[in-house]
Amino acid sequence: MVQQIFNEYLPNMIKAGLQYTIPIAVVSFILGLILALLVALARISQLGGAFKIVKGISSFYVWLFRSTPLLVQLFIVYFGLPYLKIAGIFPDGIKLDPVVAGIITFSLNTGAYCSETIRAAILSIPTGQWEAAFAIGMKRSLVLRRIILPQALRTAVPPLSNSFIGLVKDTSLAASITLVEMFQVSQQYAGENYQPLMMYSLVALLYAVICTILTWLQSYLEKVTSKHITAGEGGAN
């Protein structure tokens, strides 16, 4: 059994991780971050008029995805949308490939949570920096891009990294929509060899290894983004 694990089960689980788990997590996180930034900027915007509708939609989106389970969201997108039939647009419903459905759901879910992280990071920057930049004639968009966002990024790195690590583990839920990632493969083998404890422990170990590597990368990224702060403190002393 041990030889079979290393010769057959383990390589196929690793293959599923490299083919589906990690790529889906990376793509979903990148798309989610883009969406999160847009939503965060919309929610902190001081624009009035019709833009208040955009702010309202952004707030509703964040509330919706933070208030419902990720598994339910996956089921709605993959199993529910095929029943959403709109004459002339989607007469047969919206049928998505499991990979596409997974990426869409994970991206939307990640965007909702990360938008709050980014919004809080931006709001943590002292208002005096905005005022000083406006005083020398800088436009709001330039202040945001050149002064505020770089500082907010350093604040947001730890929680955003944690969100990505959490997303990697959450991809296991995609097994429920027939996506053959690592956990789905372990389920298939457990059904074949009747060794659920061994198979699930093995896939848990693989997730632990991946998340440990990501934790090391997070620590390195935090050191890189905080270098100038350490250097600045040393110079001030």
Give the helices and strands, then pairings:
Layout: H1 2-44, H2 51-67, H3 70-80, H4 98-123, H5 127-135, H6 140-170, H7 182-193, H8 196-225, H9 227-236
Keywords:
single chain, transmembrane, ArtM/GltK/GlnP/TcyL/YhdX-like, 237 residues, 80% helix, Amino acid ABC transporter permease, MetI-like_sf, mainly alpha, 9 helices, disordered C terminus, cell membrane, MetI-like fold
How is this structure best described in words?
It is a single chain. The chain is an all-alpha fold and 237 residues long. The chain has one domain: MetI-like (MetI-like fold). Helix content is 80%, strand content 0%. It contains nine helices and no strands. The protein has helices at residues 2-44, 51-67, 70-80, 98-123, 127-135, 140-170, 182-193, 196-225, 227-236. Helix 2 crosses helix 4 (98-123). The longest helix is centred in the first third of the chain and has 43 residues, at 2-44. It starts with a helix and ends with a helix. InterPro entries: AA_ABC_transptr_permease_3TM, ArtM/GltK/GlnP/TcyL/YhdX-like, MetI-like, MetI-like_sf. It is found in: Cell membrane. It is a multi-pass membrane protein. This is Amino acid ABC transporter permease. Pfam families: BPD_transp_1.
